[in-house]
Amino acid sequence: MTMLLTHSEVGLCDAAQRAVELAARRGARARASVHHEGVAKAAMRGGEVETAERSGSQNLSLTVVHEGRRGSASTAGFDKAAIERVVEEAMLIAAYVEPDADADLPPPDALAFSGPAPQLYADSPRSPEAMLEAAGALDRIAGGIAASDSRLRAGESVAATTEGLWALATSDGFCRSALRSNDARWTVMLAQDESGSISDFCQSQERQADALSSAQSLAQEAADRACRSLGARAIDSRRCPVLFDPRTAATLVDIIAGALNGVAQYRRMSFLPDPLGRALAPAHLDLQEDPFEPLGLASGGFDGEGIAGSTRAILRSGVVEGLFLSTFSGRKLGMASTGNADGYYNLRLTSTAPSGDRAAMLRMLGTGLVVTHFQGGKTDPASGNWTQAVRGFWVEGGEIVHAVTDVTLAGTVPAMLNGIRAVGRDVERMGAIRTGSILIEDMQLGGWA
Amino acid sequence: MNGGEIALERARAKLLGPSGLDEAAIGRALNELAGRGADLADLYFEASSMRSWQLEGGRVTQGGFAMRQGVGARSVHRGQVSFAHSADIREGALLETVRAVRTLERSGGVGRDRQGIAPGRRAAAHDLYPALDAVSIEDASAWIAILERIDERARAQDPRILRVDANVRATDTTVLVADADGMLAGDVRPMTILSMVVIAEQDGRRARGQAGLGRHAGLEGFDAASIDAMVASATVMALNNLVAIPAPVGEMPVVLGPGYPGVLFHEAVGHGLEGDHHRKHLSAFDGRLGERIAAPGVTVIDDGGMAGRLGSLGIDDEGTAPERTVLVEDGILTGLMQDRLNAGLMNARSTGNGRRQSYAHLPMPRMTNTFLANGRADPADIIASIDRGIYATEFDGGQVDIVTGRFNFTTIAAWLVEKGRLVAPVRGATLIGVGHEALRHVSMVGEDLAFDSGMATCGKQGQSLHVSVGQPTLRIDRLMVGGQAG
To answer: Please, which of A263, A385, B330, B377 could form a disulfide with B444 given CB 3.0 to 4.6 Å?
Structure first.
């Protein structure tokens, strides 16, 4: 039973269809997407409430195609006047821009008028009071852990929850909606000793509160992460193997997926040009996409154009089999949409190479760097040049020697991909991406000398 | 002119009239919001509209329009903030939003009683930017022509320019702030951002260049000379990056060019001097006011009252007029940036730095226009002083860890310097340092203070804002440089 939403599913569908009908009456093909979200969030620190929030948002966005020209407009108001204005503005824009045959809406037979709709919503306590209670419990536990170690101080503990509703209608008679939920908890810990101060955090995010990590494990993990990072120091520049822990490994997967996005491809803003059928990674690697995982954080029955995705291989044995295409980017590349107008669905990186748990991965690393945090840097989408300031641990003989900071890693993404030796069984889910730690056999580390 | 009665009139027309609200209704909502004795209670109304045009493949085939409005209601009791917001601002919905705030309060009834609030106090007028509408369909043809010219000129620069993407986005924002102390203040904030990305290709190698212009203005704020300079800047960056060599690694002297590299002081100093980080004892600069934290000659200022700069504000988002806050004076830490909440809890006063991304976000201490003041060195002498190091003129953003003071930036335009001369462009390098250590190693400060081109944004706790950053050319004796060269 939803408790944060103020609009109904029917109300949203009505608003979307009203906008589409008004545009159709003016001779346009049209698509309207209506979002509504309710949020409750509480942040506690030291037994006190820092902030308590309750909010609602809504947006209607309309795309029209008229005489081969496209216009888009959006409004936060759903009243008659606002919808009429949005139609007017979208039509006006279509009158000014140049025609582009690729900008037309998808053919009706591409739309998912029916088909599987993965579960995206689950009941959970979502009132502001429930968030205050959850944040309070996390804050108490974090405070207790901090009190047991003189190096620790508990930072903010946060509980946040969202309920969302989305309706999509097109002038081809498509009208579907989806209800979704999201629950998150996180806590921050500060550690301090003679070497200095450091903060770290741990968070859990799911579509239902029951599936979240326990407050105890979140606070303990945040405390452990902060303490382990004390005494971090730079090391000398060198080439060495690097193990990206699952949290940072997920970022690498995101970079690969970004380079295979249709927009990057047709704009020639990808360091992996013309990738289909090419081996871009070692043969032991597979990357799978699954839109339909029940309660998956990036699941969906159709994209923002009304087209369904599919369960498929993006990389099979290191060879690129799939791109992430919308109708528009697909047409620019001479291909059909893959149902990825809103980006990728749930992704999972796997490897058939020898692997193991975290300890085994440290042994495989031998002597090298474990990366636990990206502190800032850049991937140049055109050249693939990659550089990051990183934090982590120096490992010798498979054992952690000390924490590391103030060092950089640099390389090119294609070379990094080719250098992946193993993917760990220490799999974590970071939003849409599941991966274990990634071991790259040789990278340039920048440090003191 | 803007602010004062002019902006209030605009706010009444855009926000209050269409929603059937008047000042009496706002007073009633504030009474309800603050009635239980809040230390601070305010309503922030906002209406915005945005229009954009996008060029790709030599043609403008996409445009967009968006409009939104809403109100954020906040009450504070002994530092505990309760906040709700709504896209509906009619009186019934406004009272619902205010009641939602009341239900979140955990410790009411302890402050002074606040019945009978009648908003009457006004903010002063200002001349920082005009109260004009930047978003007009009338300008569509002119903007489309400008975007097409950008494409033509960029391609004309060099046959290796493979692709040009350009975008213009004009936004009109009207805000109205009302608080339980009886203040009612408005501001009209026009803004237009013109930006471009080019891709160059040679022998199968690709490189990217980017540039942009941001103004508190509409079409009239963009002259041909500025646009041509932007095009030249983006294309030269791409062509340089095409032939760039791997950046060196290790600790070395770094010269930062004038303008956007001032983001160094935004990250390395500015964030650590925001009041909230000090109230919570999180900042690496906590407890160090009055101490020397930088070399003599280093003076860093945040000034929200500079005409034309994108970080400027007639009033901040709590209705306070902006100030010039000297953060570091000749190397000594002298000031913090405050919003009303943190100032109230720290026995200080707001410096006009209370900013928020929108009505749906809470205000917090944020920077406005932050820069390093001029020194006396000749920029050419600064480069000539380097035996082996890096000269960087453009970065792609930057980050800082408030707790440790560690910051980093990645260059998008930089050169290897040997024996005082620029040797070759280098590929993106990440520069890292610790704020208070890097500041002590600033050894030469130039006399060529410049600001970014209006493209600087700042992210904090998920909220993004336009700011401005600036500095003259300067030398830092020791900074870690991380590149691909071994």
So the answer is: B377
